[in-house]
Amino acid sequence: MRCLVIEDEAETSNYICKGLREAGYLVSACDNGPDGLDLAVGNDWDIIILDRMLPGRIDGLSIVDKLRALGKQTPVIIVSALTSIDARVSGLRGGADDYLSKPFAFSELLARIEALQRRSAPGADSSQLQVADLKLDLRTLRVTRGAKVITLQPREYRLLEYLMRNVNQVVTRTMLLESVWDYHFDPQTNVIDVQISRLRAKVDKDFPVMLIHTLRGVGYRMGAIPPDGAEPAAAGGPA
Amino acid sequence: MITLRASIAAKLVLGYGLLGTASIVLVSAVFYHGTVGVLDRDIDGRIVAQSDRLLAHATGQADGALLAEVRRQLDDGIDSDREIFQLLAADGKPVAGNLGSWPAEAARLDDGATLLSAVVKRDGHATPARLYLRPLAGGGVLIVGRDLSEQEAVRGVIWRALLAGAGVSLLLTVGGALLFRRVVERRLGAIRRTAAHIEAGDLSSRIPVSGRDEFALLGRDINRMLDRIELLMEGIRHVSNAIAHDLRTPLGRVRSKLDDALRHEATVPRLSCAAHDAIEDIDDLIRLFERLLQIAEAESGMRSRLFERLDLGLIATDIGEMYEASAEDGGVTLTLDAPEHLYVDGDRNLLASAVASLLDNAIKYAGPGHAIHVRAGLFHGGLASIAVHDNGPGIPETERAKVTRRFYRLYDSRHLPGNGLGLAIVSATALAHGGELLLEDGAPGLVARILLPLARSS
Prior knowledge:
The structure holds 2 protein chains of 2 kinds.
Chain A: E1 2-6, H1 10-22, E2 26-30, H2 33-42, E3 47-51, H3 60-69, E4 76-80, H4 85-93, E5 98-101, H5 106-120, E6 128-131, E7 134-137, E8 142-145, E9 148-150, H6 154-165, E10 170-172, H7 173-181, H8 191-203, E11 212-215, E12 219-222, E13 230-231
Parallel strand pairs in A: 1-2, 1-3, 3-4, 4-5
Antiparallel strand pairs in A: 6-7, 7-8, 8-9, 10-12, 11-12, 11-13
Chain B: H1 8-57, H2 64-75, E1 83-88, E2 94-97, E3 114-122, E4 125-135, E5 141-147, H3 149-199, H4 214-245, H5 248-264, H6 268-300, E6 308-311, H7 312-329, E7 333-337, E8 343-346, H8 348-366, E9 371-379, E10 383-390, H9 397-400, H10 422-432, E11 436-441, E12 446-453
Parallel strand pairs in B: 7-9
Antiparallel strand pairs in B: 1-2, 1-5, 3-4, 4-5, 6-8, 9-10, 10-12, 11-12
């Protein structure tokens, strides 16, 4: 995976690059607008992460603009200290695929990068999702684990579907709120955690292998193998 | 005190004074023309007619018949103290009449009969008169006229009356205008004094308002503006205090936790646990700042151009369903009554966040065993409303206005998690949408109601 980071603030840039290298990406970094534009346009990247405000008279939005004008559909995540909804909306309307406000947790950025990667590389058009012995039939809306049929509320079904489509990937609470509920705001309490623990009670309870894992301070991950740092399911999530 | 030249009141006085004088002059001219002028023309007509009559009786010469007629007129005793008749012979000598002197024009009437005013001697007295001089066919002149002394007296009376009237009106105009100037300056003075107080730092100073005139309306508008400014200033002051005090506490906590971990925790897992704790605390602080920014953004009203048409009923249903499980976990019954097609113009995420905040509060503060009812619908017919009603302890009436302030927390709830921003954000969001947040007595409990203007049907 080739990844371009355009960010003028050295510390943030290092933070992102280091994290991405650890996650197995090939990273190129650049600290100003004009060079960023040259690099972004002149090479093929799997993902571009750029700051909105850059030195050198070419800002993040105009780089996205040029890229899209040249017909390049490279996924772009804007990382910015401009956090207002106005700024976010203009960023997304300007052609960026995602918008993350600073300061952010690296795990959130990584989760969003991975989500974009999956989106740009559509999986096999299957009518059934499967994780270990959990099966979800997209046509009949039937969910089974082993021999047991699991009955879900419509919202729980969509939550499970999203988790299963992103198997072995980290999904954050904000991503869940955006994709399953289609809202973008910061829920103050553990409302998402409660939804997950409901789902977990139906999917994981009475089974020896846990499929829905909580990553402290980050979010959730679905998979048969518990990730590093996953908490026991009973903890539910951060207090 | 401003100079008289610069005073708008003085300018108004001058303007109205001039206007008043001009109108008095105009009225007087019309009146004078209508009275004295008519009398003058009347006299002219009468003496010409008399002259015509005399000549009709005679042959047009200063002979016997005309002479006799003149004498008869003079002796008939009718109007004898005002009438003037004089017959002059061709050589200019008086033949008959009551004049002692006559104007020199009588000797050279080349262009026919002439009407003129002159001072003549009549029965031995000099008197103003109006005369009609008419040459006779056989030489000589017939003068018919009228003594104007009475007329002049009337004219004098009218002039004096007009002048007196004009003087009095002018005095009244100027006096009234000066009075007006004092009133204006007094009313403006109240506004200027208030402005000076506010400039000196007393933001609670207000313009005394009485009556319903223009100044009272202006005063009310300015007072309303001052109320708003005071509220905002208070908010800013409050935020500064809160940042100074409330934010120091969590920062201090993070610092001491890290410090403690560095000094006492030797193992990597324990250190990493402390780091995780610190990150969580810092995330909370970041979230707090984001919410403060969110309030500022909503209050600045910059958002409305991003508004879209949305169904408030749908948002209530979505968020209500999202919180059903949380309510159940908290031992609270949540019921929902939200019909669809309740359209407003707004920001979907902000409104959803506001409803979520109200539900958060209701679950947190009502406590186990209580019930929450979410209801969307029309409020008094003309507004869209989302009400979250809980039957918990509620908020005392005296506190209800304060809980929408930033960082304000009820004394009894300080032990519960929260940052005292929830209702402030809901309130700011409602205001940014042209609506408001109402907190009402739920009898028992609290009704938190977001009121929004309905979308105009397009």
